[in-house]
Amino acid sequence: MHADPIQKALEMVAASRALRERQLANRAELQRKVAAAAKPLYVLKSKRQLELRLQ
């Protein structure tokens, strides 16, 4: 009779671990996508920089 509650507890722990692993994998994937996103090569500090680049 004691095995049933223990088994349920073990299943709950396993499910929690699986959920945590999925969350970590999703977070890692999102961080990878953010890192791969296009980033500006420089910060535009003045309109003159833009005008020089367009010439």
Would you give an account of this structure?
The mean pLDDT is about 80. The longest helix is centred in the middle third of the chain and has 34 residues, at about 5-35. This protein starts with a helix and ends with a helix. By secondary structure, it is mainly α. The protein has two helices and no strands. The radius of gyration is 25 Å and the shape is rod-shaped. The chain has helices at about 5-35, 45-55.
Spatial gap, N to C terminus: 83 Å
H/I helix tally: 2
Reading the helices and strands in chain order gives: HH
Average pLDDT metric: 82
Strand-pairing-aware structural class:
mainly alpha
Low-pLDDT stretches are none
Q: What is the rounded Rg?
A: 25 Å
Strand residue percentage:
under 5%
State the shape: rod-shaped
Helix content: over 70%
List how many beta strands DSSP finds. 0
Largest sheet: none
